[in-house]
Design goal:
heterodimer, A: 637 residues, alpha/beta, 5-stranded mixed beta sheet, 15% strand, globular, B: 394 residues, elongated
Chain lengths: 637, 394
């Protein structure tokens, strides 16, 4: 590709792309995001290619591999344009039928999404409740473009914002726009992006850096991953605009090595923009120079912290350093450095193209725009959701997420990744907003959202997250290293029935100091799961400590499985399936669990036929009674 | 000249250079803030968090680490607010659970009223992970033979791959700076440090590269030994120059010839002492406890290697019997003259040795001819015999 020397040449290039495309032409898109990829979408795509050729529709039907759509629960996803017909959970054997029916203008009814609430089939992707309640301004293009094709991105107005700022706006005007939009950092900090840019622009120093933080590490969260994989150019365009506004000529994209597709796609994207002259010396003939390097992270949760990330970029172990002097003044190699999260950068072209007022009109006063969440846990529709700020947690969980599976009761939602807090049912109407979530002892974080139902033990949940954080603490400062480890030890004791009076208060004390005295955000937020669960579910802690009872029936040391002699019909199903041979019994002889052998896996409870429902979990005061003297099956009278 | 800022520490108005850390300013005005990981020669890292103080400024109040928080105009620092004290107390409790046997932690914890940690998981580490050793190795010695390995609770100080370092220069700076003696040089390198022997103590003790040649030296000022100083050898370190408040260190200083007008000259040509290693049959140089008279003189001296306690160099225990061999290096085939001094100094050393150790010490002097020829010498010799010194003619 030849370099585009001027904005007019760029416009011509775009018009050429558009003129070569027929918007009414059939196009089968196969989601190639990581979720669908795990469902073998790549072999489905190859099958489509072969099938289209075999059936002789090479000219009539286009095929495209797109980025993640978000509804990963139902992958592999196929969307057929221009109409936007969506097929879910498509298998290899469905491909032939889809091609022939599509060419004939027909629908493959059995592959449509069925609304679990109403039972009706839904034809268009946009009408699926999961998508309908979302505002997919950042994520939306993922399903329309092939992430490896810059033409696709340019066809959808890509790089027009860059062209606009380079030739129509001064750096100050760009910063002003971003400030007016009130965009706040999507990585978790929530710091106003415009102000950060301004401080970096005014910082002393000839060399400045802009950095993309793509070291997403929260377990179960993959917002940034999907953006980099599905629409890498949107991030790159935002970065170049930011570099222009700040006056930086060098940039870094710090992406996790564990995201191979993201690494691949961003590298392809960087090469494409460099070839086109949208990156490098004298971008589009504007005289502005900027280049970027992709740096692969070596895998540490803490490297997502900005100062640790910069230390890692310098080639040292990714450990945080104090930020009393902000990184915009002294960051990477002690030079002014502006770091933003993937999602933040991806919002920038939208703000430039559609205006700060449009952006600020979405969301709440303090938190504008949309936010992508990774909705996981005990919720019907798991996946990536992009919602306007200010939407209530309830709407996300019930309207978009489709509620809790198996009609279980909602218990809590954890926002903000492993160091977020758990928000109880009583506060589920809370709007999603940086400040509101912080007030509740949780945080926005980078957008993790884990839904928990009544079968979740909150003490065990806190222990689980602390276990993750204990592994990921870099160990540099005392409160984070020792504090998390000691909290974990106390929580483990409590969940294993060794809790003592005073443990809860000691936990609170350690948590408070760890929060107040730790060096970086990892340690400062690590106590959130502990403090928020104690705050909202104290009775559950007390039940564990005082009564040695786990109300949710999760903590293995505190529960026993028991077969009601009156209900057991000696069907031998549990007996045969018990992995540790703990069920004693036989034909016509009621089954009894040998508590010494039982490993508390719960298979007997799951497998006991519903009509008998003879197995139960006991905890606390409800001790397992001795087996009856007569073990013969009691017939229902 | 750096800009000055005014701030308040514990109610006191203080002026300080902009950019200085709160801890440095506090130390200058005599306010004590505890710290384990701060050292003025090293970059502050804020790892132990014990130097946490409360800073109020710009309308909010927060806890910061004073070792790396730069002073700003108008801030109010509180080094002992209840929140600060509670924070330090809990941090010390956590550290005491990690290092129950480390004295510096025990002492600090006691100072803050912590006798026994309430937390359950008690480890038994000596290393508090302050990182002084890793920083001095990297920042001042320019070596980086050791660093932190592992993450979180598994963090420890070690060499790459936990094997002996082949870049360690065996300077011992890490072990020297370690506040808990957790660093063992033998874990880091196969090489053993070669002590710099003190010339003044006749090689019986070691000295550092910066030293005062001997007590009451004229001038009584330290000198830098260019043969062993890391700065002269490698261009690194340079801590002495930074910390010397008198700014007396000048690495560029050269030897010079000075012409002086004087009234009189005292000529002291000195003497050359005999190298007793030439007399192999006596064991000098082979057995640690065979010493020359000059070395023995240093052992007896209050400014000597054992602060005047009479000890055997081999095991630092008091000797029970001492044999003095006379005329070594004189009155033989090569040197047929008498030294004329060894009779009397052996007598003196035997008397002083007995004074130091007491009744339990036997001193035997093996001599050829007793030459107590000057004024009072004979009386002194007689007194030695009275004190129990045993003279044996050979």
């Amino acid at each position: 590709m030849a370099r585009l020397p001027s904005p007019s040449q760029f416009r011509i290039f775009r018009e050429e792309i558009l003129s070569g495309r027929d918007p009414s032409k059939l196009c089968i898109t196969v989601c190639s995001g990581t979720g669908c990829h795990a469902y073998a979408s790549e072999s489905v795509r190859v099958a489509f290619k072969e099938e289209i050729n075999a059936q002789g529709y090479g000219d009539k039907i286009d095929l495209k591999a797109t980025g993640c759509h978000g509804f990963c629960e139902k992958g592999p996803l196929i969307v057929i344009y221009p109409e936007g017909i969506q097929y879910v959970q498509v298998k290899l054997q469905d491909v032939g039928e889809i091609v022939s029916e599509t060419a004939a203008g027909k629908i493959v009814d059995r592959l449509l999404f069925v609304n679990p609430m109403s039972g009706e089939k839904i034809l268009h992707e946009d009408d699926v409740p999961f998508y309908r309640h979302q505002s997919r301004v950042v994520l939306g293009n993922n399903s329309r473009i092939d992430p490896k094709s810059i033409e696709d991105y340019i066809a959808l107005d890509g790089y027009s914002a860059l062209s606009k700022v380079l030739f129509e706006m001064s750096p100050e005007e760009v910063i002003e726009q971003v400030k007016r939009s009130n965009l706040r950092g999507r990585g978790g900090g929530g710091f106003p992006t415009g102000r950060k840019w301004e401080e970096c622009r005014h910082a002393l120093g000839d060399i400045k850096y802009v950095i993309v933080n793509a070291d997403e590490g929260d377990p179960g969260a993959y917002m940034d991953r999907s953006l980099l994989e599905g629409n890498p150019h949107s991030v790159l365009e935002g970065l170049i605009i930011g570099a222009y506004a700040i006056g930086a000529h060098e940039g870094y994209i710090y992406v996790r090595q564990e995201y191979p597709l993201a690494v691949e796609n961003i590298n392809i994207a960087v090469k494409q923009v460099r070839d086109l002259g949208l990156l490098g010396k004298d971008i589009l003939g504007s005289g502005f120079d900027f280049d970027v390097k992709v740096h692969r992270g070596a895998g540490a949760f803490v490297s997502g912290e900005s100062s640790a990330l910069m230390t890692a970029l310098e080639g040292r172990v990714g450990e945080p350093r104090p930020k009393y002097i902000h990184t915009v003044i002294s960051g990477l190699w002690n030079r002014p450095s502006n770091l933003n999260n993937v999602e933040t950068w991806a919002n920038v072209p939208l703000i430039i193209n559609r205006g700060a007022d449009w952006f600020a009109s979405i969301g709440t006063k303090g938190s504008t725009g949309t936010k992508i969440f990774s909705l996981v846990g005990k919720v019907n529709n798991t996946g990536l959701v992009e919602v306007p700020m200010g939407i209530s947690l309830k709407d996300i969980i019930y309207e978009i997420g489709g509620g809790i599976p198996k009609n279980k009761k909602f218990k809590a939602v954890q926002t903000g990744g492993p160091s977020g807090g758990c928000i109880p049912e009583s506060l589920i109407n809370t709007p999603v907003d940086f400040d509101e979530l912080t007030k509740l002892g949780s945080m926005m974080g980078s957008g993790g959202m884990i839904v928990m139902d009544e079968d979740t033990c909150m003490v065990d949940t806190a222990r689980y997250f602390l276990d993750f954080l204990a592994d990921e603490s870099c160990g540099k400062c005392t409160p984070c290293r020792e504090g998390i480890d000691q909290m974990l030890a106390i929580l483990t004791n409590i969940t294993e029935g060794r809790g003592e009076e005073g443990d809860i208060e000691l936990l609170e004390e350690i948590a408070t100091v760890t929060r107040n005295a730790s060096l970086c955000a990892l340690g400062q937020t690590a106590p959130n799961p502990v403090l928020s669960t104690i705050n909202y579910f104290r009775a559950e802690y007390e039940a564990h400590v005082e009564e040695k009872r786990c109300p949710a029936g999760v903590c293995k040391a505190l529960i026993s499985f028991y077969i009601y002699p009156t209900k057991c019909r000696a069907c031998q199903i549990c007996l045969k399936n018990c992995p540790s041979g703990a069920v004693i019994g036989g034909k016509k002889q009621i089954h009894v669990i040998d508590q010494d052998k039982c490993i508390k896996c719960g298979i007997c409870l799951d497998i006991c036929p519903e009509k008998f429902s003879a197995v139960t979990k006991l905890s606390g005061r409800h001790r397992v009674p001795p087996p009856p003297a007569d073990l013969s099956v009691i017939r229902a009278s | 000249m750096l800009e000055e800022v005014g701030l308040k520490i514990d109610g006191r108005e203080v002026k300080a250079k902009k950019g200085m850390a709160i801890l440095e300013v506090a130390q200058e005005v005599g306010i004590k803030i505890p710290t384990l990981c701060y050292h003025k020669a090293l970059s502050p890292v804020g790892a132990c968090r014990l130097c946490t103080v409360e800073v109020t400024g710009k309308g909010r109040s927060r806890l910061v680490t004073s070792c790396n928080y730069p002073v700003e105009e108008g801030i109010v620092v509180n080094t002992d607010s209840p929140e600060v004290i509670n924070t330090r107390k809990l941090l010390l409790e956590l550290l005491l659970a990690r290092c129950p046997d480390v004295k510096i932690i025990q002492d600090l914890a006691r100072e803050y009223g912590v006798e026994k940690p309430r937390v359950k998981k008690v480890k038994n580490e000596n290393c508090i992970l302050c990182g002084l050793c890793t920083r001095i190795c990297q920042e001042r010695m320019g070596v980086s033979a050791i660093n932190f390995v592992g993450r979180g609770i598994h963090r420890k100080v070690s060499t790459p791959f936990d094997t002996y370092s082949d870049i360690c220069q065996t300077c011992g700076a890490c072990a020297y700076i370690c506040p808990t003696r957790a660093i063992k040089l033998e874990d880091i390198t196969k090489n053993r440090p070669i002590p710099i022997l003190s010339e003044f103590n006749a090689g019986l003790s070691s000295r550092s590269p910066i030293y005062i040649p001997y007590p009451q030296a004229v001038p009584n000022a330290p000198v830098i030994d260019r043969e062993t100083c890391i700065h002269f050898l490698k261009g690194e370190c340079g801590i002495c120059k930074e910390v010397c408040k008198a700014e007396a260190i000048d690495y560029e200083q050269k030897e010079e010839t000075v012409e002086l007008n004087v009234g009189a000259i005292v000529l002291s040509p000195g003497y050359e002492s005999f190298d007793a290693k030439a007399k192999q049959e006596l064991g000098y140089g082979r057995y640690a406890n065979v010493v020359s008279a000059l070395e023995f003189e240093r052992i007896l001296s209050a400014s000597g290697p054992f602060q005047g306690h009479l000890q055997r160099p081999s095991d630092q225990k008091a000797p029970k019997r001492i044999a003095f061999m006379q005329c070594i290096g004189s009155r033989d085939h090569e040197r047929d003259y008498c030294s004329s001094v060894c009779c009397m100094y052996a007598t003196k050393e035997a008397i002083i040795a007995k004074e130091h150790v007491g009744e339990g010490l036997d001193c035997d002097i093996f001599f050829m001819d007793m030459r107590a020829f000057s004024k009072g010498f004979e009386a002194y010799f007689e007194r030695a015999k009275e004190l129990g010194v045993n003279y044996i003619r050979c």
